[in-house]
Write a structure and sequence with these properties.
Structural class: alpha+beta
Largest sheet: 4 strands, antiparallel
Oligomer: single chain
CATH architecture of the largest domain: 3-Layer(aba) Sandwich
Strand order of the largest sheet: 2-1-3-4
InterPro entries: ABC_transporter-like_ATP-bd (IPR003439), MetN_ABC_transporter-like (IPR050086), P-loop_NTPase (IPR027417)
Number of helices: 4
CATH topology of the largest domain: Rossmann fold
Membrane topology: Peripheral membrane protein
Number of domains: 2
Shape: globular
Distance between the termini: 17 Å
CATH superfamily of the largest domain: P-loop containing nucleotide triphosphate hydrolases
Order of helices and strands: EEHEEHHH
GO molecular function, one term: ATP binding
Radius of gyration: 16 Å
Organism: Escherichia coli
Enzyme class: hydrolase
CATH class of the largest domain: Alpha Beta
């Protein structure tokens, strides 16, 4: 899945968290967000799943296009979230599950995929095979 952002600006009240963010992450590439606390890393990740709505810019992700000059429809947001998942670090992971099990939990419960289907999807996304550990 490729991700493109162009001119993304995000605010919390009067505080601007993201300043004209433009980036392109082609399919198969790995992107690291690195920076100090308050730099906007989590805000950017929340924008990718439309947990936060930018005031301006465009987002292309998982075959979905969003132009934030208008508010996306609830259906468009649901469609995106069916294909884009987030696994947060630490407190939102189940400690009794492996990384792989944490990754396939939501597709099994939310999308109704079998364990094998969810595993195949996770492996395809991560670029791994059954012989590798996610």
């Amino acid at each position: 899945m490729s991700i493109q952002l162009n001119g993304i600006n995000c605010f919390y009240g009067a505080h601007q968290a993201l300043f004209d963010i433009t980036l392109d992450c082609p399919q198969g590439e790995t992107l690291v967000l690195l920076g100090p606390s308050g730099a906007g890393k989590s805000s950017l990740l929340r924008v990718l799943n439309l947990l936060e709505m930018p005031r301006s810019g465009t987002l292309n992700i998982a075959g979905n296009h969003f132009d934030f000059t208008k508010t996306p429809s609830d259906k468009a947001i649901r469609d995106l979230r069916r294909n884009v998942g987030m696994v947060f670090q630490q407190y939102n992971l189940w400690p009794h599950l492996t990384v792989q099990q944490n990754l396939i939990e939501a597709p099994c419960r939310v999308l109704g995929l079998s364990k094998d289907q969810a595993l195949a999807r996770a492996e395809k996304t991560a670029g791994t095979s059954a012989s590798q550990t996610l």
